[in-house]
Amino acid sequence: MPRTAMNRRPRWWTELLLVAVVYAAYSGGRLLARGDVTTAVGHGLAILRLEELLHLDAEHPLNRLFTGTPALGIPADFAYATLHYLVTPAVLVWLFRRRPLHYRAARTWLMVSTLLGLVGFALMPTCPPRLLDAGYGFVDTMAQFSAYGWWGGEASAPRGLGGMTNQYAAMPSLHVGWALWCGVMLWRYGRTPLPRALGVAYPLLTVVVVMGTANHYFLDAVAGCAVMGLGLVLARPAMRGADRLRGPVLERFGGRFGRRSAQDGTTGASPVVSGGCETSAGERIPGQRARSASADDTPAPAR
Description:
Low-confidence stretches: 1-7, 257-280, 282-296, 298-303
Radius of gyration: 30 Å
Distance between the termini: 71 Å
Helix content: 55-70%
């Protein structure tokens, strides 16, 4: 496919529809990927033990800091419940409007990585720290400070809608993965120091928030970054595959349009403006000289 066709800005309504379909598939698949509680708890404890062995278990001190300091815990809960729903679409819209030549590749990277995360939820249901037994020392800050927000005691879902979310989809952390994607986009395509600074700060802040609120382990965040890395590798093959599929579809519908035009007495090709007439030098109207010559050869009427 020509480079100009690949770089052309997509239509906004097709992009909106595509994003909606992928997000609906992600949300529905996340619910269907629920594993049994015993398996999820076992995976969570295995991650925690591995982190303790590697001295990577920063969740405990951060969680104690957030639960003991409402001035940190409450904003962190709001950040966990809202930012990934606001910042990620905002960066997508910004790319669509300001960096159209890079939008398609960036969008494909995000969507492929999101679907890979769904595979992770299905293969490894994981209990987050906040749902472990209290003896492990974690406090659910979302439940502790639920009076200050719209969420209840079941993840970041609005009160009464906790059954519509999979609380054991902790591995990988797509909160961190999406934040990393946003950071890369802001750093790479931002033209001033401010978006680049935000591109660095936002993923780092997200890692601290997901750990301090006891929603994810540190290795969940690492896995979220790994998923984004794999999605980046697969994004270009995914675009090539989409282009190969698009060609036959356009040819098929184009052929139908051509046949329908022929039945109507028209052609699918663009009409030739000259209609078969050729204009010579000095002529403004095709065939002007021929008509003038024929007029001169016509005998004058007898008087």
